[in-house]
Amino acid sequence: MKLSTEHIAVAYHDQNIIEDMNIEIPDGVITSIIGPNGCGKSTLLKAMSRIMKPSQGAVYLSGRNIHEMKTKEVAKEMAILAQSPDIPQTLTVSQLVSFGRYPHRRGAGRMTAEDKEAVEKAIEDTGMMEFKDRTLDALSGGQRQRAWIAMALAQETEVMLLDEPTTYLDMAQQLEILELLESLNKKEERTIVMVLHDLNHAARFSDHLIAMRDGTAEHIGSADEVISKPVLRKVFGIDAYVVEDPRTKKPVCMTYDLVGRHLESVPDKEDSQTMANA
C-alpha cells in the first residue's frame, strides 16, 4: 500500500513550513523522519495522515488522494498515533483499544465478535493482557504507550504513523516500544512511519530514513547513508564521529560538537572498521 506526497506545501498562519516536497514511503518497512527542531517533521507526518491539508500538492494512499477519501476509508488503511493524545485517563486499556474498531463499525452499534477478537489480539500482541482492565492513569508511561499502540493495531491497517512514540519515556521504556514496533513490522509486514529525535534509535530500528531541514528532505536513504558525518553536518550543523555498533552493525553517533569546534581525535565509522579488520 503506497503512501506518497506529490509537491506538497504546508503552511501555518501564512508561513510555509514545508515547500514542494515529494516523498515515497517504502512498503513493509520502518521509516523514520529525523531533523532539528522546527524543521517540519511532525508537520509532514500530520500532512501524510490527513490531520493537516497541504496548501498545495497532494498526499496519495494507494494512488488515491487522501483528502478525496472518506474519513473511515482512510482509517481502515492508515492508523495515526499523535504525540499527546487527548483522552480521559479513566478509560481502561480494553476501552481505549476498542476505539480502534471505529472505522469497521456501523454507526453506534455494538462490537461484533470480529471486533472483540481484533481488540483481544491487539492487547495480546502488545503484551498488555494483564493490564487490560486497568485504567490509563494506573499505568506507567511505557504501558500507556503500549496501550495506544494496541489501539492503532486494532484498526488492522497496513500503515501506522507515529509522532515521537518514545517521548517522555525512560531508556528502558523507549527500547521496549521500539522493539515492539520492530517486531510488529517483521511479523506482520506493517509499514511504519515515525518521527524520532534520537539518531541512534533511528539508525538501529529503521530500514529507511528521511533527514529534514528547513521544510525540505535533505537526504533520504538507509541508516548507513543518512547517519554519516557529511549528512549530519548539513542537517544538524554538527561534526559527528560515527562508528559501527558491533552488535547491530548499524551506525552509531558516538560524540559530536558544533561545526567549527575542535574535537579530540576519535575514529569515525570507516576508521573503526579499518581497525577492526587489522
UniProtKB/TrEMBL annotation:
Domain of life: Bacteria
ABC transporter domain: residues covered: 3-239
Span of the signal peptide: none
InterPro entries the record matches: AAA+_ATPase (IPR003593), ABC_transporter-like_ATP-bd (IPR003439), ABC_transporter-like_CS (IPR017871), P-loop_NTPase (IPR027417), Siderophore_ABC-ATPase (IPR051535)
Compartments where located: Cell membrane
Annotated GO MF terms: ATP binding; ATP hydrolysis activity
Major subcellular location class: membrane
Entries under Pfam families matching the protein: ABC_tran (PF00005)
Membrane topology according to the record: Peripheral membrane protein
One GO CC annotation: plasma membrane
Keywords for the protein's UniProt record, in alphabetical order: ATP-binding, Cell membrane, Ion transport, Iron, Iron transport, Membrane, Nucleotide-binding, Transport
Annotated transmembrane regions: none
GO biological process: iron ion transport
UniProt protein name: Iron complex transport system ATP-binding protein
Organism field: Salibacterium qingdaonense
Organism taxonomic ancestry: Bacteria, Bacillati, Bacillota, Bacilli, Bacillales
